Amino acid sequence: MLRSNNTWSLVPFHPSMNIVGSRWVYKIKYHADDNIERYKARLVARGFTQQEGIDYSKTFSLVIKQVTVRLVFSIVVSHGWMIHQFNIHNVFLNGVLFKEVYM
To answer: Residues 2, 8: contact at Cβ < 8 Å?
Structure first.
């Protein structure tokens, strides 16, 4: 999926590049009866190798807070609405990067 979504492009190395390390993380997902459902793999950046002020100046992580989830559930219950849940199998961040990142 990384290739088909054009997640990266291969470029020649130059000594001026700050390289962020990466590694593959593997996981086995199981059904409730302990049979194997599927094998999962994801490529993760080892951001902890970066140094503040050299490789980055500020960070931001778009996550939802637990209090927000509780508020939404309270509104849903008070109005008698229904909630539907779904899972997206291949989600890729399509944010705009203002600096080049090398892995």
So the answer is: yes
Q: Report yes or no: 28 and 39 within 8 Å, Cβ to Cβ.
A: yes
- Yes or no: say if 68 and 74 are a contact pair by the CB < 8 Å rule: no
CA gap 52, 65 in Å, rounded: 25
Residues 18-53 pLDDT 10s: 888 889 999 999 999 999 999 998 888 887 777 777
Cα angle 45-47-51, degrees, rounded to a multiple of 5: 150
* Contact status, residue 55 vs residue 20, Cβ threshold 8 Å: yes
Q: Assign 3-state DSSP to the chain and report helix, strand, coil percentages, each to 5.
A: 15, 20, 60
The whole-number pLDDT of residue 93 equals: 60
